């Protein structure tokens, strides 16, 4: 991250801006409007080297001449990553920084504070805009982090009525999905677009004259035109020539007496090469040595790899704007770029590569100059055969390497004509591969476009709707139901297709919380799947059967069915499972039934495998699941880290119902346990949105979150009102836990109801808890929960003490601490000294969990009993009091030089979780780079 714009060109501020009169007039018009109090957004877009940064600098200078206050920021891929760095430094650096800088920095670097950061920065900008118009400049949007992008488009839209002009620049072509989403959003709110194209011949001649200090002769102009109107290439090409004596000036005219110069390296090309991975750099250099446009097959053969192994390197080279697609080949964006890359290679190597390329047998790979690509819109016999090979390869790779599989499937799709019979099936095959690799929005667009085009055979439509239903499950339960129901209703589809659509419908209904409907559909689906002999549908329906048993409070049967569904899915392979993966549900039930260590081991293995395979969607789902397990096991730091890591994924098509019932719920519960009122209120706002969701289960979670928030604020009556809909909903679909989302929370609800004077609801909750315990006699924690709830309702010390004893063998740390506190509270009324050990044990458990707010409450009870205890630092290392134990472990390994992925492997964490711990450590230790962190570790370890 850098402050101020980073110029792409080497021309100084005194060099005139040539060939951009229309663009400058447009900017001046927007500044005129700003002077009149009209804000807005201007997006400057163009390829690398075209002059985006220079245009932004000219606009900033023009604004300052008018007396407008200007903030300038820019992203830089070579600088250390700091969330919100480009925008934050832009508004806080310079001659007139925005007020409240330290608070903004604190909010930006504190996890869970995004809502308040947006509020604070918005307030500061409004305050500044009241004193005069503002110009906010943000360069190189394509390299901005997600928090910068979120803050920019949120504030730009929210402050549109204020005299604030946002001027942003972005490189055209391929950009990260988060950047593309941001561009789409600002376009929707009326952003102006300023597209910078190549300069014309006159402007090229004028710049050449500026650089050389003389009129160019025809030879020099021919050389200048090789830059193809790209200012940066023109400056880098001509700049050194006069100093080196290649250009001479006679009678006021610049000439090339020795002829055109030999190809040479260019600084901008060298910088872009340095930013590539080693594999992509090797690919670009090989392509440069070959010469003209080259096929991937030829590059693969020259590099001794398979074409599939080059997918990432090719994409990286295209994204860097070094290479471009040219039919079925890769070509350099400009011949000057190719020559600059080639100039950096030893001559013998260039000659050897060219000889090797020229000598390849025609059948093994296309040579650089042979046949053209297929004509658009038509697929010949050769193309169809190649597409079939690609589909076969994608199917083989799907289970272990979905990323390469998705690329092959997309390539196969390109080879089929728009009306090809096979195309709908390939679309259905591609959608889950894109979703699994984190490209859900692209997957949904692919399927939706196919459905919108119409003309599909029922069987083809069913396949596509099944794929879209699978895609929708993590994001929109109701949409999954809609797609599955529409597919199942199609006339004339095969028994297998109908069975799978019904199975997916049952999953969607079950996850949505429509349990009675899910059970009814599942019964029909079982018959259909049995008739088709479809084991894939059977695995999915076994998961539904488990969910039905769970809803009926038969946890033993639910766990048995979950084990069976996970085993079936594992035997079939994850790529054929309708709900990926069934093991998620099995892990969550393992924890619910007291097998927490087993559940965490399964989650860690799931995260490791899916991360290695590039299965982004499944990794995120595992992180969500593990965050719930950590929360309920009383590991608040780990729960928050997993929830934050799961929140970082991009490319999702919506807020995400699965995230609602995991990530957002976890973050709010952690905030309540730690006394973080601001974060809790921010997630309460999410809960209010959840209350209006189409899925009953999401509404139930939202209601429970709002009830907990009201209780946190000391409003028990309001808490009960929030639960009205849940606790009075039809019995068939009412949550199995009477409004709760975790059976261990029954005592929480009883306590809340008693404070509100809602005795009947407290009794209802106790009855449900006791029924669960009776139905599942082997699950000790359910018996503990029932005794705890009944002890609170009846104010019975004996039952509270029984709950304490039963909780001793359970992994529910916070539930046990709560029972200890309630037992101590009852004892303190008559036998104060006997209450102290209960309070002290509860305090130790809260400290171990990191539940600062709960610990503070218990310390107050201890003080009332005549005992004082200092606040404990949960899980803290004595040498690193700022950090949790988990953060300390990560910091020490990073200081040894390990990458995030290597740290993740050593600690059995996901790289996402390691990144979350590391960001929090950076904030707490006030460091901004790994080098600075390493120095700090060495300093502390030395004892200085």
Polypeptide structure, described:
Helix 25 runs antiparallel to helix 26, helix 36 (746-755) runs antiparallel to helix 37 and helix 43 (885-895) packs across helix 45. The chain is built from 46 helices and 13 strands. The strands form four sheets. Strands 1-3-4-5-2-6 form a six-stranded mixed sheet, with helices on both faces. The protein has a three-stranded mixed sheet with strand order 7-9-8. The model is unreliable at 1-13, 359-380, 731-739 and 873-877 (pLDDT under 50). The longest helix has 18 residues, at 495-512. It starts with a strand and ends with a helix. It is globular and about 110 Å long. The relative contact order is 0.05. The protein is mainly α. The chain is 64% helix and 6% strand.
What is this entry, summarized?
Helix content is 64%, strand content 6%. The chain has 46 helices and 13 strands. The strands form four sheets. It has a six-stranded mixed beta sheet, with helices on both faces. Strands 7-9-8 form a three-stranded mixed beta sheet. A two-stranded antiparallel sheet has the order 10-11.
């Amino acid at each position: 991250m850098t402050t101020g714009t980073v110029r792409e060109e080497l021309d100084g501020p005194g060099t005139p801006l040539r060939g951009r009169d229309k663009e400058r007039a447009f900017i001046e018009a927007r500044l005129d409007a700003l002077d009149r109090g009209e804000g807005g957004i201007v997006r400057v877009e163009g390829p690398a080297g075209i002059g985006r940064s220079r245009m932004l600098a000219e606009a900033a200078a023009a604004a300052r001449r008018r007396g407008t206050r200007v903030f300038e920021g820019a992203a830089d891929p070579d600088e250390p990553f700091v969330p919100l760095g480009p925008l934050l430094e832009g508004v806080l650096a310079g001659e007139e920084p925005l007020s409240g800088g330290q608070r903004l920095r604190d909010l930006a670097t504190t996890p869970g504070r995004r809502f308040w950061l947006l509020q604070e920065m918005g307030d500061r900008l409004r305050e500044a805009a009241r004193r005069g118009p503002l110009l906010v400049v943000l360069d190189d949007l394509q390299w901005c982090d997600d928090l910068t992008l979120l803050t920019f488009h949120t504030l730009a839209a929210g402050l549109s009525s204020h005299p604030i002009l946002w001027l942003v620049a972005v490189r055209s072509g391929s950009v990260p999905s988060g950047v593309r989403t941001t561009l789409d959003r600002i376009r929707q709110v009326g952003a102006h677009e300023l597209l910078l194209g190549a300069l014309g011949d006159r402007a090229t001649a004028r710049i050449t004259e500026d650089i050389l200090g003389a009129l160019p002769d025809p030879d020099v102009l021919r050389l200048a035109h090789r830059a193809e109107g790209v200012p940066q290439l023109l400056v880098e090409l001509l700049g050194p020539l006069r100093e080196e004596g290649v250009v001479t000036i006679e009678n006021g005219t610049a000439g090339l007496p020795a002829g055109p110069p030999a190809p040479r390296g260019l600084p901008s090309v060298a910088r872009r090469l340095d930013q590539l991975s080693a594999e992509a750099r090797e690919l670009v250099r090989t392509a440069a040595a070959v010469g003209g446009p080259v096929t991937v097959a030829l590059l693969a053969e020259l590099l001794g790899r398979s074409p599939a192994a080059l997918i990432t390197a090719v994409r990286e080279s295209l994204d860097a704007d070094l290479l471009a697609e040219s039919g079925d080949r890769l070509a350099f964006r400009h011949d000057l770029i190719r020559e600059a890359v080639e100039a950096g290679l030893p001559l013998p190597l260039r000659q050897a590569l060219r000889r090797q390329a020229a000598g390849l047998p025609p059948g093994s790979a296309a040579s650089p100059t042979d046949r053209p690509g297929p004509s658009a819109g038509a697929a010949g016999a050769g193309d169809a055969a190649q597409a079939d090979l690609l589909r076969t390869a994608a199917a083989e790779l799907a289970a272990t390497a979905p990323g390469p599989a998705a690329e092959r499937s997309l390539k196969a799709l390109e080879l089929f004509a728009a009306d090809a019979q096979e195309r709908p099936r390939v679309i259905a095959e591609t959608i889950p591969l894109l979703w699994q690799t984190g490209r859900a929005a692209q997957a949904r667009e692919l399927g939706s476009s196919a459905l919108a085009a119409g003309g599909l055979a029922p069987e083809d439509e069913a396949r596509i709707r099944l794929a879209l239903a699978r895609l929708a499950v993590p994001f929109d339960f109701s949409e999954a139901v809609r797609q599955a129901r529409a597919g199942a209703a199609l006339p004339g589809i095969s028994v297998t297709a109908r069975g799978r659509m019904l199975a997916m419908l049952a999953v969607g209904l079950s996850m949505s919380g429509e349990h009675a409907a899910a059970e009814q559909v599942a019964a029909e689906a079982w018959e259909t799947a049995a008739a088709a002999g479809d084991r894939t549908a059977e695995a999915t329906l076994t998961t539904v059967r488990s969910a039905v048993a769970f809803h009926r409070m038969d946890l033993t049967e639910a766990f048995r069915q979950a084990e069976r569904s996970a085993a079936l899915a594992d035997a079939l392979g994850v790529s054929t499972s309708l709900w990926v993966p069934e093991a998620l549900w099995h892990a969550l039930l393992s924890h619910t039934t007291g097998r927490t260590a087993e559940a965490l081991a399964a989650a860690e293995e799931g995260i490791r495998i899916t991360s290695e395979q590039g299965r982004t969607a499944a990794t995120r789902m595992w992180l969500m699941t593990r965050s719930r397990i950590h929360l309920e096991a009383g590991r608040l730091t780990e729960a928050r880290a997993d929830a934050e890591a799961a929140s970082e994924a991009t490319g999702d098509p919506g807020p995400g119902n699965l995230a609602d019932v995991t990530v957002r719920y976890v973050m709010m519960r952690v905030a309540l346990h730690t006394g973080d009122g601001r974060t809790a209120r921010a997630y309460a706002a999410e809960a209010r949105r959840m209350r209006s969701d189409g899925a009953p289960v999401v509404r139930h979670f939202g209601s429970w979150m709002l009830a907990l928030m009201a209780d946190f604020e000391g409003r028990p009556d309001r808490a009960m009102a929030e639960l009205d809909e849940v606790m009075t909903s039809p019995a068939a679909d009412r949550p199995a836990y009477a409004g709760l989302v975790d059976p261990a929370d029954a005592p929480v609800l009883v306590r809340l109801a008693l404070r509100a004077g809602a005795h009947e609801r407290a009794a209802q909750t106790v009855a449900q808890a006791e029924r669960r315990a009776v139905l599942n006699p082997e699950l000790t924690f359910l018996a503990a929960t029932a005794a705890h709830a009944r002890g609170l309702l009846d104010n019975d010390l004996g039952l509270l003490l029984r709950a304490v004893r039963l909780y001793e063998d359970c992994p529910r740390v916070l539930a046990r601490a709560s029972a200890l506190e309630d037992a101590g509270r009852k004892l303190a009324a008559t036998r104060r000294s006997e209450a102290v050990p209960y309070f002290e044990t509860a305090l130790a458990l809260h400290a171990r969990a990191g539940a600062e707010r709960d610990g503070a409450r218990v310390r107050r009870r201890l003080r009332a009993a005549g005992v004082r205890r200092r606040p404990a630092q949960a899980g803290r290392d004595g040498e690193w009091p700022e950090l949790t134990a988990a953060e300390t472990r990560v910091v020490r390994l990073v200081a040894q030089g390990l990458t995030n992925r290597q740290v993740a492997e050593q600690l059995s964490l996901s790289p996402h979780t390691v990144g979350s711990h590391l960001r929090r450590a950076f904030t707490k230790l006030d460091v901004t780079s790994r080098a600075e962190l390493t120095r700090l570790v060495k300093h502390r370890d030395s004892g200085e």
